[in-house]
């Protein structure tokens, strides 16, 4: 695809969907399974990036600035419901007596995202794009996620990119929208558990990586692993010929 897919709001006001989705592909009259693939801490090492963000803010604004920025993000999360990085940058700049929030925001938007793929994540994406209806299903700050997803080249690989502020709310529309089997791959125990509860006949794959997975041993997913190579093996053995 050489141009960016058009953007339109759908289902809830807090989500954006970049779509070239026109119904599931079919092969010999049957419907390919749809894979909803999360980004942060599933295929992308968000924890590793979190560590360098603070250091970069410190380098630009002095020791302790990174920690303060992180506190401001948490304050913003309480006020608006998600970690809005632009709003946090505005507050951070204001606190320092400046109106130049763009420089702080740029620290986040210009991170070297492509250095932080999780091991075997690229192979997983290639495999999914070739064999399934691949939907990138991400959550968090819209601007930051878009930049990251673009720089990881995922708009080109996926049939659709959804950035949601409430993944679980979107589940209600999915069984109508995607025909055939649904497979969800995510690191958040809550997302995995609610997918099973709300979507019923869904295959869940829990990626045990990062801060959300910590403290959980099992979440009753169909596959639970840290290893993305294992995800490919599992799908090859169990679900690639389901259409
Ligand atoms: Mg995640």
UniProtKB/TrEMBL annotation:
This is FCP1 homology domain-containing protein. Residues 1-29 are annotated as: Disordered. PROSITE patterns: FCP1. Transmembrane segments: none annotated. It comes from Candidatus Curtissbacteria bacterium RIFOXYA1_FULL_41_14. Residues 1-11, 19-29 have a biased composition (Basic and acidic residues). It holds the Pfam family NIF. Residues 28-235 form the FCP1 homology domain. SUPFAM superfamilies: HAD-like. It comes from the Bacteria.
């Amino acid at each position: 695809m050489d141009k960016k897919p058009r953007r339109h709001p759908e289902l809830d006001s807090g989500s954006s969907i970049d779509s070239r989705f026109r119904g599931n592909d079919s092969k010999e009259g049957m419907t390919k399974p749809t894979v909803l693939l999360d980004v942060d801490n599933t295929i992308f090492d968000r924890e590793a990036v979190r560590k360098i963000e603070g250091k970069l803010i410190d380098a630009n604004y002095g020791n302790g600035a990174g920690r303060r920025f992180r506190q401001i993000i948490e304050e913003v999360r309480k006020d608006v419901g998600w970690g809005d990085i632009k709003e946090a940058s505005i507050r951070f700049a204001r606190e320092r007596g400046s109106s130049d929030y763009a420089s702080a925001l740029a620290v986040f938007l210009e991170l070297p995202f492509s250095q932080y793929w999780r091991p075997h994540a690229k192979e997983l994406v290639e495999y999914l794009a070739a064999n399934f209806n691949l939907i990138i299903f991400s959550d968090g700050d819209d601007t930051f996620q878009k930049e990251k997803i673009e720089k990881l080249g995922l708009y080109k690989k996926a049939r659709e990119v959804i950035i949601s502020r409430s993944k679980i709310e979107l589940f209600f529309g999915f069984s109508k929208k995607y025909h055939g089997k649904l497979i969800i791959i995510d690191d958040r125990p809550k997302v995995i558990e609610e997918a099973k509860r709300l979507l019923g006949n869904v295959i869940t794959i829990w990626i045990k990586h990062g801060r959300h997975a910590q403290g959980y041993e099992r979440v009753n997913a169909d596959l639970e692993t840290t290893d993305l190579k294992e995800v490919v093996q599992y799908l090859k053995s169990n679900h690639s010929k389901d259409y």
